[in-house]
């Protein structure tokens, strides 16, 4: 970003801030740290100065679709920083807390925005530390729903962007990260916006100690507060499952899973055998292990086995179905409770297709982290008749995708980031059925 700005404007800044933040070079010279993961168009820095905390957002050139949106919807703006500043001022003018805007600037290569820290703590942090209850969750959902209904369309609204301030007498809320926001007429917001907000909320709390029931209750209350009445139940049903492992805690679900389709299992084991890179005596983590149906296969190859699954009922079912159960652990495949390279190999079979892309990538990263030599996975491929039929059913019925497809090329990119390369792959009737199996080995250093 150019040092000399084309436009530089103080917003709600006091005399001391005007003196110390006199230009972009002065702002950048202050001690700072990374405040959020950077993306292709934005970098967020935290600046400490004069006993206060500030956040600096450096935006690259606005994308063409954002430029069109900024020019055709309120508040009219020329770039991301100006949009964020104007959304912030509109919220604060209506008595809604948002980070105090200090300055904005436009340079030859993008835009810049500086704001003061918002009071309170993000909802996600409160959930993490067990400082929320049902009453606070309900109040937060109602605040978000009413905010959207008031015409403040904030598609990035989530548990990281809603701040909660509490006193002995009351609770107040604030919001941040507003550059994608739009000012609209009051009334029930559109379905696409509500769906996006609920999906962002789900993603922001998926690794936090909150139950699927609590998340669903939050979503329903937010929709009611937003005034969305038509097809409310259908919208809730279209949201992705909150917890993949939790579905197997339903009574008798694990028993039924253990007994299903032995003919298909035999076909799949033949595919596994063709790509298997393991050697006798190596220690293999089977995660998620399900009902332990791969035990005989792994033992026949001479492996030591450790079972792990996010569902306690599946671990118990696997142990109940054998007289010589291996060591077993309940742990999430997205956050494995094992040290780096603590196994020779990791097997993730019939699992990744349950996860949306960002979670599948995390599961692959965790498998690579704990694997010393190899990882074997299965995926559903998008170029198949089975996948096409499934997608058509989901679109016609308006349901959320419960099976997610991944290409072999995408898998290779994920594994390559962690130092693994493709060893072998096989498909179960390619382009007709969707199951593919692939093995990856760590590259020699």
Specify the number of helices. Answer: 16
CATH class of the largest domain: Alpha Beta
**Any idea what the shape is?**
elongated
Number of spatially distinct domains? 3
Helical fraction equals 25-40%
Using only C-alpha atoms, the radius of gyration works out to 25 Å
TL;DR?
With 445 residues, the chain is α+β, with helices and mostly antiparallel strands. It has three domains: 7-116, Phosphorylase Kinase, domain 1 (2-Layer Sandwich), CATH 3.30.200; 121-242, Transferase(Phosphotransferase), domain 1, CATH 1.10.510; 248-442, Rossmann fold (3-Layer(aba) Sandwich). It has helices at 15-20, 24-28, 64-72, 80-93, 123-128, 134-149, 191-205, 212-225, 232-237, 253-258, 262-275, 295-300, 312-320, 357-370, 385-397, 408-416; strands spanning 7-10, 32-34, 42-49, 52-59, 101-107, 110-116, 121-122, 152-153, 162-166, 171-175, 182-183, 283-286, 304-309, 328-330, 343-348, 371-380, 420-427, 435-442.
Task: Give short descriptive properties of this protein.
445 residues; alpha+beta; Phosphorylase Kinase, domain 1; Transferase(Phosphotransferase), domain 1; Rossmann fold; 3 domains; 7-stranded mixed sheet; 6-stranded antiparallel sheet; 16 helices; 22% strand; elongated
What does this structure look like?
The chain folds into three domains: 7-116, Phosphorylase Kinase, domain 1; 121-242, Orthogonal Bundle (Transferase(Phosphotransferase), domain 1), CATH 1.10.510; 248-442, Vaccinia Virus protein VP39 (Rossmann fold, 3-Layer(aba) Sandwich), CATH 3.40.50.150. Helices cover 36% and strands 22% of the residues. It has 16 helices and 18 strands. The chain has helices spanning 15-20, 24-28, 64-72, 80-93, 123-128, 134-149, 191-205, 212-225, 232-237, 253-258, 262-275, 295-300, 312-320, 357-370, 385-397, 408-416, and strands at 7-10, 32-34, 42-49, 52-59, 101-107, 110-116, 121-122, 152-153, 162-166, 171-175, 182-183, 283-286, 304-309, 328-330, 343-348, 371-380, 420-427, 435-442. It is elongated.
């Amino acid at each position: 970003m150019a040092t000399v700005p084309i436009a530089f404007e103080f917003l709600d800044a006091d005399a001391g801030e005007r003196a110390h933040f006199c230009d972009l070079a002065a702002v950048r010279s202050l001690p700072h740290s990374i405040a959020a993961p950077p993306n292709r168009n934005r970098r967020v820095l935290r600046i400490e100065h004069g006993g206060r905390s500030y956040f600096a957002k450096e935006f690259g050139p606005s994308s063409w679709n954002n430029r069109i949106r900024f020019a055709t919807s309120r508040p009219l703006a020329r770039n991301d920083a100006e949009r964020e500043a104007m959304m912030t001022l509109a919220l604060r003018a209506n008595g809604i807390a948002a980070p105090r805007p200090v300055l904005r600037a436009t340079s030859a290569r993008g835009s810049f925005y500086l704001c003061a820290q918002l009071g309170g703590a993000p909802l996600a942090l409160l959930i993490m530390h067990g400082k929320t209850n049902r009453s606070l969750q309900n109040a937060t959902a109602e605040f978000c729903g009413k905010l959207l209904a008031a015409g403040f369309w904030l598609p990035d609204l989530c548990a990281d962007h809603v701040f909660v301030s509490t006193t002995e007498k009351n609770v107040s809320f604030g919001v941040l990260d507003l550059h994608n926001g739009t000012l609209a007429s009051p009334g029930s917001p559109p379905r696409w916006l509500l769906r996006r907000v609920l999906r962002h909320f789900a993603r922001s709390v998926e690794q936090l100690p909150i139950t699927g029931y609590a998340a669903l209750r939050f979503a329903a209350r937010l929709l009611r507060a937003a005034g969305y009445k038509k097809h409310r139940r259908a919208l809730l049903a279209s949201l992705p499952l909150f917890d993949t492992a939790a579905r197997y805690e339903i009574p008798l679900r694990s028993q039924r899973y253990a007994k299903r389709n032995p003919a298909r299992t035999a076909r799949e084991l033949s595919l596994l055998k063709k790509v298997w890179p393991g050697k006798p005596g190596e220690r293999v983590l089977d995660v998620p292990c399900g009902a332990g149906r791969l035990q005989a296969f792994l033992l026949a190859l001479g492996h030591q086995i450790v079972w792990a699954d996010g569902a306690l009922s599946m671990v118990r079912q696997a142990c109940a179905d054998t007289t010589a159960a291996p060591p077993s652990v309940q742990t999430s495949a997205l956050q494995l409770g094992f040290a780096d390279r603590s196994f020779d190999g990791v097997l993730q079979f019939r699992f990744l297709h349950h996860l949306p892309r960002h979670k599948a990538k995390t599961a692959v990263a965790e498998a690579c982290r704990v694997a010393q030599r190899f990882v074997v996975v299965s995926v559903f491929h998008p170029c198949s008749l089975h996948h096409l039929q499934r997608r058509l059913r989901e679109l016609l019925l308006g349901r959320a995708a419960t099976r997610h497809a991944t290409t072999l090329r995408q898998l290779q990119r994920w594994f390559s980031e962690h130092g693994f390369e493709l060893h072998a792959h096989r498909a179960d009737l390619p382009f007709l059925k969707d199951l593919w199996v692939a093995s990856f080995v760590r590259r020699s250093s």
